[in-house]
Amino acid sequence: MGVLKRYGAKLPVTDKTPSVNLEEGSTPLVRLDRIGEKLGVELWAKLEGCNPSGSFKDRGMVLAVAKALEDGARALVCASTGNTSASAAAYAAHVGVPCYVLLPSGKVALGKLAQALIYGAKVISIEGNFDRALDMAREAAEVRSFAMVNSVNPYRLIAQKTGAWEICESLGKAPDIHAIPVGNACNISAYWAGYRDARVWGNITSLPRMMGFQAEGASPLVTNKPCPDPETIATAIRIGNPVSAELAREAVRESGGEFNAVTDDEILNAQLILAKDGGIFAEPASCATLAGLIKLKESRKLPEGSTAVMILTGNGLKDPDTALSQVGKPIKIGSTLEELMEALV
Ligand code: AN7
After folding, report:
1. In Å, what is the CA distance from 179 to each residue of 149, 196, 314?
2. Cα 192 to ligand 1 centre (Å)
3. Under a CB-based contact definition with an 8 Å cutoff, are residues 159 and 11 in contact?
4. Ligand 1 pocket, 286 CB below 6 A?
5. Contact, 59 vs 25, CB < 8 A?
6. At residue 232, what are phi and psi to the nearest 5 degrees?
């Protein structure tokens, strides 16, 4: 029924807040037994790629846009590695306000670029990485008085907590391990806040260990210093200076969790496993979660029999190029039955 309708009473929604709704949230939590058995855990995947624009960003965007409208914003602006721009563009189109998005040139997956353009956003490709684009977007928002809908916008984080609330409702408890990809570190911070809410409300009695996974080439929270030149195949998390670094460190520290880095090869391998042994196609950044759990298992840091939830933040269809780069081509035949029989091996 949409995040604002389902959780309005627990969010800063008032009589004056316009009801924006693309039926975001309420995403599937799927049990993955074949993969879970190999890891020795009860494994669940939260399919955030099932949101209307194909990523978790819609949960926070719906509130950010509703509040922007409430405040009379003329236009939205954001910088993005792809998914924020797709989401902002979708909601801007839905409510009928202009949207400007700044993207790092050549580093946004094909599907995300197609989304921002077809939803009618003004797409500006900058020479420089996401971190630079974010600085520019912030300045532009200030000069032009546009609503800034990156996660520096507090409403984004507040409404992203709904993901944790849903997990607690679905499982009837908190997981033991919460595995999540980390870029700007906003989602991990929001989930931690959401779990703590659920405990205050009495929906859960324990809290999960927050396990944040970064790509090795863009892992400022693992190395504990900003990464001036982030690089990874998982372009969604190609971020060197996370906005919510402090909140995320707090989440990991308080929960007894960890940040870990996974390599691009490990991410790609995890993407294949999720697809072939789980029937789930998630974009590379999301697959850092499974890559991370495999790593934890190998270093004996994944307790046998624990319950683990992976947040699969974005749909695999967002980045067809990366997926196709690691699989074979279709078998080509003519149109005879003989050829078909030969191909069916
Ligand atoms: C699929 O779209 O930062 O740690 O500009 O698209 O909350 O930043 C995307 C981030 C994980 C990281 N998975 O979340 C953007 C952007 C996917 C993502 C993340 C992103 P945060």
Report:
1. 25, 16, 14
2. 16
3. yes
4. yes
5. yes
6. -165, 155
Tokens of 222: 């693992």
Distance 168 CA to ligand 1 centre (A): 22
Instruction: Collapse the DSSP code of 239 into the 3-class scheme (helix H, G, I; strand E, B; otherwise coil) and give the result.
Output: coil
Question: Taking a C-beta distance cutoff of 8 angstroms, is the pair 56, 82 a contact?
Answer: no
Q: Which strands sit side by side in the sheet containing 99-104, from one edge to the other?
A: 122-126, 99-104, 76-79, 147-148
Which tens digit of pLDDT belongs to each residue from 103-136? 999 999 999 999 999 999 999 999 999 999 999 9
CB atoms within 10 A of CB 275: 17
Angle at 252 between CA 191 and CA 154, to 5 degrees: 40
From the CB of 162, is ligand 1 less than 6 Å away?
no
Return d(Cα 231, Cα 220) in angstroms, integer: 12
How many CA atoms within 13 Å lie on the side-chain side of 11? 28
Atom of ligand 1 nearest to the CA of 185: 4
Q: Whose CA is nearest to atom 16 of ligand 1?
A: 81
Nearest residue to 102 via CA among 113, 91, 114: 113
What tens digit of pLDDT does each residue of 228-287 get? Answer: 999 999 999 999 999 999 999 999 999 999 999 999 999 999 999 999 999 999 999 999
